[in-house]
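>> received
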Amino acid sequence: MSFCQFFGGEIYKDHFKPGMYVCSKCNHPLFSSRSKFAHSSPWPAFTDTIREDSVTKMMETLTAYKVLCGKCGNGLGHEFVNDGPEEGVSRF
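>> returned
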C-alpha cells in the first residue's frame, strides 16, 4: 500500500486490512498494519515504524518530529509524542 500522498483525500485512513505501508516514491517499508489505529486526523495513524531505519526524524518542537522516508527522504508527515492510543505512545 502506497502511503502519504494527500491530494484531497487519504484513501488509507480507514483501511485496516493486514499489510504493509510503503513510501509512495520508492516503496521503502514504513509501517505495518499491526501498528495502525483509528484516529480523528485525516491521515492514517500508526504507533511504530517497521524498523528503526524505516524513517528519518527531525525535531520540530518538543512534541513533534518531521518524519521522512528513511531511504529517499520523501516527506511523510509528523510523529506526535505522547499522542498515541495509550499513554506514553507516540502517533505517526
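>> The mean pLDDT is 85.
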